[in-house]
């Protein structure tokens, strides 16, 4: 078995180059924060779909479809990018798709016959584009910093992403998206640009807003961050070599126990994490009847804990290793899912009844809502370290000049069954006619991922 991580010169990029790379996460995050989780997805389930249960199922099917496409594209394109060298052209191509798909969400209006289809297609295409772009951005890590700083760079990147999501969420909820009842934003203002709360234009503007945000903040990556040198290989030849490398990469991973077992574990726990974020806002809207203000403040609080968690997690990664950080995060997420499962509109811990909120109780007035918010903050705190340590662990295990194909394989392992957890949630929700079926399914995925990763020897 050959060594997967031969000794290579330690790179040292300039501060502007590092900042450009970090801003990629900042540029992408509004799509995840505004569209996937806290604003557009709950709008889809509560106002566009016939009912919240149907909305959660349809959103799950769209997430599953995007996962299937990613499973095919990520490792192949990563290998092709390795063969040709530069990563920026691929990021630019994916960015164009992301821009168009996100902008199209504006046309998913209530009452429009094609509204549901437009929302699901735009979301699915945008998800594929942003995730594939992340493969190429991740593959640049070994060319920017030495291995002993992978954890800090990766964690800081996730923190930048969370911070970008926080800023974008405050802007949207404070100035653009208004409650359809009060007709005011979270800051008590009339929406800017005359956005109509009745037709949910403030929710739909998250698509174009995310597109423009990405266009502006991805520019420093192209201006200041050095790309991988060009190999001189033509695209057709690179495509053929890329397909061959996918096969050899899978074979290498199977022979290398630590890489292979990690990738299988990553496949399972990332699947659960994707579903957890995809349905978090939908769950709050459907179970507790949250509207834009409740969901928005919940998202702001969760994003703050996510930023702090990513920063702390990156430093823990460099100090104690990636594996303990990942295992701890998975265990905490499983406990959180159990806690969410125990909640209902009028009870906590499965059977303990609670009083309904009084009119003067303010936001999150009932005990179940308060507990749900607390559990959500924990999710935010551990999700960043889980994802950041996953990519830093792989960066330590593989050679820098082949990082693209291995990060493509990481994306494959994170996406090859990424349709499975959302699909399981969608089917379970439809079969049992309850949104509580979602967290029950995700607990099983997290437990399986924990068991597999615990057997990884090399960290």
From TrEMBL:
Its main location: membrane. PROSITE patterns: MFS. The keyword Translocase does not apply. Pfam families: ATG22. PANTHER family: AUTOPHAGY-RELATED PROTEIN 22. This is MFS transporter. Residues 13-459 form the Major facilitator superfamily (MFS) profile domain. InterPro entries: Atg22-like, ATG22/LtaA_families, MFS_dom, MFS_trans_sf. The chain crosses the membrane at residues 21-46, 58-78, 90-109, 115-136, 157-178, 205-224, 262-283, 295-313, 325-344, 371-394, 406-430, 436-456. Keywords: Membrane, Transmembrane, Transmembrane helix, Transport. It comes from Microvirga terrae. It comes from the Bacteria. The keyword Transmembrane helix applies. It is found in: Endomembrane system. It is a multi-pass membrane protein.
């Amino acid at each position: 078995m050959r060594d997967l991580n031969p000794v290579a010169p330690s790179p040292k990029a300039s501060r502007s180059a590092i900042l450009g790379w970090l801003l990629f996460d900042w540029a992408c995050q509004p799509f995840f924060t505004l569209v996937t989780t806290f604003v557009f997805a709950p709008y889809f389930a509560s106002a566009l779909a016939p009912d919240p249960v149907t909305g959660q199922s349809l959103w799950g099917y769209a997430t599953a479809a995007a996962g299937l496409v990613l499973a095919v594209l990520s490792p192949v394109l990563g290998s092709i990018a390795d063969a040709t060298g530069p990563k920026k052209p691929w990021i630019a191509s994916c960015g164009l798709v992301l821009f168009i798909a996100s902008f199209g969400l504006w046309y998913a209006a209530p009452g429009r016959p094609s509204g549901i289809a437009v929302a699901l297609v735009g979301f699915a295409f945008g998800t594929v584009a942003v995730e594939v772009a992340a493969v190429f951005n991740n593959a640049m890590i070994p060319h920017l910093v030495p291995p002993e700083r992978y954890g800090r760079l990766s964690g800081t990147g996730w923190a930048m992403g969370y911070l970008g999501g926080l800023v974008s969420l405050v802007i949207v909820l404070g100035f653009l998206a208004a409650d359809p009842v009060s007709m005011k934003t979270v800051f008590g203002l009339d929406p800017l640009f005359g956005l109509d709360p009745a037709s949910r234009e403030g929710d739909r503007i998250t698509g174009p807003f995310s597109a423009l945000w990405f266009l502006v903040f991805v520019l420093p990556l192209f201006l200041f961050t050095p790309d991988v040198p060009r190999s001189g290989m033509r695209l057709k030849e690179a495509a053929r070599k890329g397909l061959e490398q996918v096969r050899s990469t899978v074979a290498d991973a199977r022979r290398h126990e630590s890489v292979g077992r990690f990738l299988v574990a990553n496949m399972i726990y990332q699947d659960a994490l994707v579903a957890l974020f995809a349905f978090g806002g939908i769950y709050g809207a459907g179970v507790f009847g949250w509207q834009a203000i409740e969901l928005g403040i919940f998202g702001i609080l969760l994003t703050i804990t996510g930023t702090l968690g990513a920063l702390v997690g990156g430093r823990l990664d460099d100090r104690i290793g990636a594996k303990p950080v990942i295992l701890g995060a998975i265990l905490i997420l499983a406990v959180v899912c159990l806690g969410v499962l125990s909640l209902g509109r009028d009870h906590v811990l499965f059977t303990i009844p609670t009083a309904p909120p009084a009119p003067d109780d303010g936001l999150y007035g009932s005990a179940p809502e308060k507990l749900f918010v607390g559990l959500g903050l924990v999710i935010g705190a551990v999700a960043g370290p889980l994802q950041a340590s996953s990519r830093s662990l792989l960066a330590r295990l593989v050679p820098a000049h082949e990082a693209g194909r291995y990060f493509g394989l990481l994306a494959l392992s994170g996406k090859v069954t990424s349709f499975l957890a959302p699909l399981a949630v969608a089917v379970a929700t439809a079969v049992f006619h309850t949104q509580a079926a979602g967290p029950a399914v995700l607990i099983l995925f997290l437990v399986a991922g924990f068991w597999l990763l615990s057997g990884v020897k090399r960290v």
